[in-house]
User: Fold this.
Amino acid sequence: MHSRRPLVLGRGPPVLTYWLWWDTAGHTLAHASSCPNCHLPEDHPASSGCTAETHQCTAKTVITATDRAMLEDLDDAVHQAETDHRCAYQAGHEGEHVSLAQSQDRPDGTSTAWWVTWPARHTASYRLAVLPECPATGADHNDDGVCLHPKDHPGNHKW
Assistant:
């Protein structure tokens, strides 16, 4: 049986996430990109409890190293910026595809959400946009109790 806990190191943005995996043979500390669905390490075991919805849109895009570096260099950046992005909406949605690219959480309690948006499936034509966050809340659903989509999103909320 594998267990995992995130160990977050560093004093300022960007936050780097290291995962401590252990089993009966010992443990390993390794850096890993996060799964876009559940934020466990990418390529986690299928039995890990991933919250991925089977009906999630499969559209993907890749951002440039320059844009990724810009996202990581933002003041009060929360995440390590990812290169590969999968649409966060439900399959069959209308309109642009969207994926959270970076969050800025300031000491005064304000935040900014940066999103990757793109018009068609598997395309290099994307843009980075600051979009307002969905105001829906559900304290029982995640640590922050907020929907993880932009305001006026199609489909269900993502907790």
